[in-house]
Amino acid sequence: MPVISINKTLSSDPAIATLIMHQEGKFNPASLAEFNQALDQVLADETIAGLIISGEEKKFSLGLDLQYLTTEKPDLAMDFVHQCMKMIGRLLTLPIPLVSAINGHAYGLGAMIVLASDYQVMREDRGYFCLPEVDLGMVLIPSMNALVINKMNNRAVRDSLLAGEKISAPMALAHGIIDHCCSLDALFTEAEKLIQAMLGKNRDAVSGLKSGINQAILTHIDQA
Description:
The chain is of the alpha/beta class. Helices cover 48% and strands 18% of the residues.
């Protein structure tokens, strides 16, 4: 099974593609390459008007592959983290509407994919949004920090980043991290509803406007 797959039949609308992260959505060089290839595939297909990102079973994405990071040379590991943030930059400027359909745990980089999406819908009964850096004894690189503080309010930053709190769907909704929470069965249906207002807009205009909105984050990504 591939680490990342694109499916145009999971949605009721053939113009909306779904990117599925398999194998717990852990990011290492191989899975990051597959993710970027999937984005290339989406961008090359002019018939695709919207994108849903989701995971499988109980996990949306567990983020960076810590086994890879802890065994890689420090300079190469840090370069990989920066490459992951360049992928986040691609999401922030995607010329079509992007929604995270959060089927389970979204940790670390997985949580940042959620923040980089235009819309977010989360399974209401299982899974957490979590930025675990404080419990791992880690700090955010500048581009990650810019993403977090520009996409989350002060209370959410305090609870998730400084306290390492595991945030459930109802809490994420209250914090303004997600737009909606629902049952697992309704997850894709609700994801499709959320992006309707952005469907069919001019790709160049959408990408350009997103670049302006996210300029503070993209500047840090580009400077890395």
